[in-house]
Amino acid sequence: MKIGNKSIGGHNPCFIIAELSANHNGDLDIAIKTIRAAKRTGADAIKLQTYTPDTLTINCDNEHFKIGGGTLWDGKTLYELYGEAYTPWEWHEQLFKVAEEEGLICFSSPFDHSAVDFLEDLNVPAYKIASFEIQDIPLIEYAASKGKPIIISTGIAEEKDIQLAVDTCRKTGNNEIMLLKCTSSYPAPLELANLNTIPDLKNKFNVEVGFSDHTYGSLAPAIATTLGAKVIEKHFILDKSVGGPDADFSLDEKEFTEMVKAVRDTEKMLGKINYQLSEKVKKNKKFARSLFVVKDVKKGEKITPENVRSIRPGYGMHPKYYSTIINKTFSTEIKKGEPLDVDMIRGFDL
Questions:
Q1: How does 130-155 read in b/e, with b if 16+ C-beta sit within 10 Å?
Q2: Which of 270, 292, 322 is the last residue of a domain?
Q3: pLDDT (tens digit per residue) in 154-174
Q4: How far apart are the C-alpha atoms of 62 and 111, rounded to whole Å?
Q5: Could you tell me if 283 and 186 lie in one domain?
Q6: What is the pLDDT of residues 304-316, one digit of tens each?
Q7: Which residues of the chain have pLDDT under 70?
Q8: How many alpha carbons fall within 13 Å on the CB side of residue 232?
Q9: Of 98, 119, 106, 93, which is closest to residue 43 (Cα–Cα)?
Q10: Alpha-carbon torsion 247, 251, 254, 255, what sign?
Q11: Which CATH number is 297's domain given?
């Protein structure tokens, strides 16, 4: 899979997405500064959300549309929340241009057909389907039909929902599918992360996998990387003092930079399957055990456990020969502390 100029999956590095979401707090200048800050963190991409309150819901304040249940947004109506959080469509072209200037890939989550059409005009390189839209099969079908990579968060999905979404993409002829393990809780408790699902998603649905994170900090993204996540998505904010609906579970520039470093360091440590020794380690083999003469011995004297031992350092014969050489005789006089060599043993050959 390729998004913009980045190849994703296989042995390629994690594709790290800074999610702008509502963290512009309605201020275009903050949105622009946030994109520029995302570049400084080492992120690969900035992601927007393309909707209006009217493309997501209706302006209604009955009990069905009021938020409750212990969220950060309790007491608001859906329409009020989305009116506060949305990114004005007239900003998009400028935000895409700023991202391009910074060398960041910019794409978005559409929330209805009109958003897909709008983003097509901006030539987005991929589409992200948000967790709560995984059941919007017509939207997934329409976005997938554009032939661009589709990244789908699985936050509220059961296995059957994921299968339906994947099948919907494939029916359009689009096999460029990425599933992101996600916990749709804001913030997400660590015990609900269930990161072991990441490799299972890959095996079960035969797609590339990643992690959309709503936990605090950078521990979960680093662990997700060890489990095969090839995309890491995290909410990013210029400064938490800006406030806004997503500020509480977003990372600021310093924190996001630390997260990127944690992911990249994890990738370095994972490395590749390799049984070859580096030159540095080869040099340190001198501290391994080997066979040494540990007492002065005369020519013709028998080799015994008292005069030859397996000790550090590693300049003598391999210890695997120890039982073979016991009771053979020395071919020459040797001082204590000399590494045992095959030429010192009468009638012995490797």
A1: bbebbebeebbbbbbebebbbbbbbb
A2: 270
A3: 988 999 999 999 999 999 999
A4: 23
A5: no
A6: 999 999 999 999 9
A7: 71
A8: 29
A9: 106
A10: positive
A11: 3.90.1210.10
